[in-house]
UniProtKB/TrEMBL annotation:
It holds the Pfam family FtsJ. Transmembrane segments: none annotated. InterPro entries: RNA_methyltr_RlmE (IPR050082), RNA_MeTrfase_FtsJ_dom (IPR002877), rRNA-MeTfrase_E (IPR015507), SAM-dependent_MTases_sf (IPR029063). PANTHER family: PRE-RRNA 2'-O-RIBOSE RNA METHYLTRANSFERASE FTSJ3, RIBOSOMAL RNA METHYLTRANSFERASE. One of its GO terms (molecular function) is rRNA (guanine) methyltransferase activity. SUPFAM superfamilies: S-adenosyl-L-methionine-dependent methyltransferases (SSF53335). Keywords: Methyltransferase, rRNA processing, S-adenosyl-L-methionine, Transferase. Residues 22-160 form the Ribosomal RNA methyltransferase FtsJ domain. The keyword Hydrolase does not apply. This is Ribosomal RNA methyltransferase FtsJ domain-containing protein. GO terms for biological process: maturation of 5.8S rRNA from tricistronic rRNA transcript (SSU-rRNA, 5.8S rRNA, LSU-rRNA); maturation of LSU-rRNA from tricistronic rRNA transcript (SSU-rRNA, 5.8S rRNA, LSU-rRNA). One of its GO terms (cellular component) is nucleolus.
Length: 172
């Protein structure tokens, strides 16, 4: 039987995302994490790395204090989102760091209270290669987080492990 796609998909988070107007089912991951750990309501500046299509940015905009900076970056264009800024760039490039610094300066932000990362490489179904590439992206995200995260700030990411381990680390 072929892969179930679109409106015929049975995943409850897919349906919840569509019902609530979220761009991705991943939005619910962040909603659940924030409900448990309460990191968004105290964040005045949020950096979302590998942010397309913008589902985590949507949740951030909804839950941060009014007037907070929500900045999303991805290799692909992120459709405009009211209350957020986004740009297209590779997070491993120095141009990306320069642009982040400029946007921070333009918005009076000295550091980010929260750095988010839910990136996944597109390697076409080769799980081992995808996991390795995804974890390399996590390392790149950690490098950026160490540059831009405020003392006592939060970094939220996902890390893939082998099917034998069968778990993900979502918050650290």
């Amino acid at each position: 039987m072929g892969k179930v796609k679109g409106k015929h998909r049975l995943d409850k988070y897919y349906h919840l995302a569509k019902e609530h107007g979220y761009r991705s089912r991943a939005s619910w991951k962040l909603v659940q994490l924030d409900s448990k750990f309460k990191f968004l309501n105290s964040s005045r500046a949020v950096l979302d790395l590998c942010a397309a299509p913008g589902g985590w940015m949507q949740v951030a905009v909804e839950r941060v204090p009014v007037g907070s900076l929500v900045l999303g970056i991805d290799l692909v264009t992120i459709a405009p989102l009211r209350g957020a800024i986004s740009f297209e760039q590779d997070i491993t490039k120095s141009e990306c760091r320069s642009k982040i610094k400029k946007i921070m300066g333009d918005n009076g932000v000295k550091a980010f209270d929260l750095v988010l990362h839910d990136g996944s490489p597109n390697v076409g179904g080769a799980w081992a290669q995808e996991a390795m590439s995804q974890n390399a992206l996590v390392i790149d995200a950690v490098k950026l987080a160490t540059q831009f995260l405020a003392p006592k700030g939060n970094f939220v990411t996902k890390v893939s492990f082998s099917a034998v381990d069968s778990f993900r680390i979502w918050w650290c």
